[in-house]
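Exercise 7. Predict the structure of Kynureninase from Shouchella lonarensis.
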Amino acid sequence: MSQLQTLAHAQALDEKDPLRPYATEFYKKDGITYVDGNSLGLCSKRAEQAVLSVFAMWKQHGIDGWGEGTYPWFTLSERIGQALASLVGAHPDEVIATGSTTSNLHQLLATFYRPEGKRTKIVTDALNFPTDFYVIKSHLRLHHDDGQTHLRVVESQDGHTLCEDDIIAAMDEEVAVVLLSSVLYRSAQRLSLKKLTDAAHARGIIIGFDLCHSIGSIPHTLSADGVDFAVWCTYKHLNGGPGSVAGLYVHRRHHDRMPGLAGWFGSNKEKQFDMSPTFTQGDGAGAFQMGTPHLLSLAPLIGALELFAEVGLEAVREKSLKLTDYFLALLAAFPETQVFTVRTPIAHEQRGGHIYLEHKEAARICKALKQAGVIPDYRAPSGIRIAPVALYNSFTDVYTVVITLRQIMKDKTYERFSNTREVIA
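Solution. The predicted structure, encoded as tokens:
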């Protein structure tokens, strides 16, 4: 047995890990190895305390909590937006914490998709997350007879990754907007935002990105890259909790645009409570808010984002790559785990924060992993996503995942389970 294949090697890597102490900030269950942080991050103690603090403000201040207390509610979305801005490489006035990924996509397509003349098409890719398709088709139906004729879908050459040159080739004089994911939710392929943005702008096209699978695991430079707009959720790598309030970004050059969907929380703060029937647009990205923020779903982000401010996203990315490199090396080190096909790009610059494996028995293998104390993520029909998260997963966790997977394949314990998806996957 090589040194790589030993528990001692994993433990030695953990001893040298500068982020190791941060694992104690999270609620981790004994006997459970959680590697599904790209679906839902674990609860941190700071997120819990932030919720309790905001809840206490409600108890203590009642309606005056909007302007009093540690975290006045009236400007909390802007305050959290400033913290999010540092994670996406944006100016503070370009980011706001609001809505959900889907509602924010609706808002920004309503704002930026203005078909005119020949420019009527929206470009996306065949591997994009379903909600992005649903939103795109909704807006196409609002402007045209159907949601398909003016949709241009860039196909994958291998069913798992995208060729950026194919995306650029789809950008012609008929395209109004391009909407892509920064990291593909299945294969974890990372796209070059700057390359694609430069190509779109050279052709007079607006371009936006869904950052759901990259924010909190990969540094971004949205402002410098000139990206027009972006959206993201906060419950995956950001550990904001189930249903935590999402975020959106709008480049400064677009701040004079009227929001496509106006709502009272997008009003100028000084005039919001004038209760005028005429909308007075707020400043920056804050204008793209719609309804009253969900305070108890916003609160966890106060604590969750403190951790990123302390650690720094560069350190998170460095460890994330080391964890996934180690996972891939271990997977290749045992004959029993060589049966999986890795669909994630190996090159660091093309890889997100998780690894996507394929196996025809994936559903039942995931069930066997869960029974053995490892929490992965299943994607139909044959995908297993493994996401070792830098802030709370260790190299020993990665070792445990691979050794457990090896034993399951060796003993064929997965055969005890049906190879079908549960209702929630």
